[in-house]
Amino acid sequence: MNELFKDNIMSLKDISIDNHDPKNPEYMTESEYMAINFDKVKEAYVRTRGIYYHPKSSDAIVIDDNKITMIEFKNGVIDRELTSEIREKMLNSVLIYCDLEDKSLGFTREHVDYILVYNYKKNPFDPNDKKYRYQMNVYRDKIKKNIFKKANMRFKQFGLEIYEKYLFNNVLTYSMRDFHDYFTSRLPEE
């Protein structure tokens, strides 16, 4: 494991904190599983290379049994602008990861998954709700969601699936509850 990774290990709970309101911090997960704080890795990466541009990056990386998962936590409303920012984070995170680990995009396509963890209460899937802001085509999403449900597959929200099989093996969008049920509850206890 890269030294920058080793120097930036902390719990997923601590990585997931939303402290926009310092008096009322919110955690997107309660998992104490130790992960790589990729935002901190990115800061060190930029500093050691003397890069003026500060790219956006994903929040965490979990490495479990040679399976690598990049994770982004978003507690607010996910609109078009934020979706664009998340896509930029996905791209930059892969580039930084590949540079640090001397890996290719072929490696990330095969071995790296990406998960966006969002607050369902702030982003419910309701195409009839006027607050349904993030998607460019509400009706297309409604049809896709029904098809995915019939195929017994997970619907990927916010248009992030564009990077699946291009940069990542799988791209998933989980509510905080789903993140626990389908990801953190399955991690080994340390």
What does this structure look like?
A hairpin with a 2-residue loop joins strand 3 (60-64) and strand 4. It contains seven helices and six strands; from the N terminus they run αβαβαββααβαβα. The two termini are 18 Å apart. It has a six-stranded mixed sheet with strand order 1-2-3-4-5-6. It is of the alpha/beta class. The longest helix has 22 residues, at 80-101. Residues 131-136 have low confidence and may be disordered. The radius of gyration is 17 Å and the shape is globular.
Kindly summarize this structure in a few lines.
With 190 residues, the protein is an alpha/beta fold. The chain has helices at residues 3-6, 12-15, 38-49, 80-101, 105-111, 138-150, 176-182, and strands at 9-11, 34-37, 60-64, 67-74, 112-118, 170-175.
